[in-house]
Amino acid sequence: MANTVIRQYVVRGVTLCAALAVSAGVSAQAPVYDVNGNENSLEKRIAILERMVDSRTDMQHRLQQQIDTMQGEVDELRGALEVNTNKLEKVLERQRELYLEIDKRVEALKQSGVGGSVSTGSQPSMPSTESGSGSSQPVAPAGQDEASAYDNAVNLILKSREYDKAIPAFQSFIQRFPNSEFAPNAHYWLGQLLFNKQAWAEAEEQFQIVSNRFSDSTKRPDALLKLGVIAERQGNASSARDFFQQVISQYPDSSAKKLAESRLSGL
């Protein structure tokens, strides 16, 4: 009886062990197959993604190289444009100054011609000559002295190119003749000389005088343009933009407008 029960337990144990072994074998084999299959699939996907990433990286690298090359070319073009703009600005300034000086000297010659005709016309009558000379004598030397002082200062720039000597010459002229008809030009010339020496504060003061005190002067648009350039070189882009916009809006027909537009586009 006891042996029979033992046998039954042994058989059951063996059967259970066999079943466990079979189930364990099945469960072991199936995961190995699935896992290996998933690993192969993941490896393929990873390889594809890596190739895609490498291709995109190479493309981005090539695009960045092209962008860098184009940026360098743009910088070179901007530099060349800046040089040509500065040269053109100097040529236009010289041309405007020469035209202005010609007009002033022609006007002075006309005035002197009128005075000469009056004196020669009154020559037959001695009293008339004396009265005419007496009335013109106090005015002529003052005007001639003023004009000659201005011409001497201008000639230091245009003829002898002694720019350092021109600065005190214009300062002396402004001090002696603050209300002269040449005063706005003198202030502008002085500002330009100081501008060339990169004395920004002193140059700005002279251009501000032209802009504020001589609003009817032909030099005002150029003075506003120079104020914008000074603000730009001092890193004040907002103020420079305001000055350039002022030139464009208030003087649409001036040559300074084109220079202001060029400067404004570069900000």
On the 0 to 100 scale, the average pLDDT is 74
Q: Classify the helix fraction into a percent range.
A: over 70%
Estimated radius of gyration? 45 Å
Which class do the helix and strand fractions yield? Answer: mainly alpha
How would you characterize the largest beta sheet?
A: none
- Individual helix count: 9
Content of β-strand: under 5%
Terminus-to-terminus distance: 110 Å
What's the count of strands?
A: 0
Shape: elongated
SSE pattern, N- to C-terminal: HHHHHHHHH
- Low-confidence stretches at least 5 residues in length (pLDDT < 50)? 22-35, 114-144
Give an overview in words.
With 267 residues, the protein is mostly helical. It is 87% helix and 0% strand. It has helices at residues 2-121, 126-136, 139-158, 163-176, 183-196, 200-213, 220-233, 237-250, 255-266. Helix 4 runs antiparallel to helix 5 (183-196), helix 5 (183-196) runs antiparallel to helix 6 (200-213) and helix 8 packs antiparallel against helix 9 (255-266). The chain starts with a helix and ends with a helix. The model is unreliable at 22-35 and 114-144 (pLDDT under 50).
Which helices and strands occur, and which strands form pairs?
Elements: H1 2-121, H2 126-136, H3 139-158, H4 163-176, H5 183-196, H6 200-213, H7 220-233, H8 237-250, H9 255-266
Helix pairs in contact: 1-2, 3-4, 4-5, 5-6, 6-7, 7-8, 7-9, 8-9
Notable characteristics:
267 residues, mainly alpha, 9 helices, 87% helix, elongated
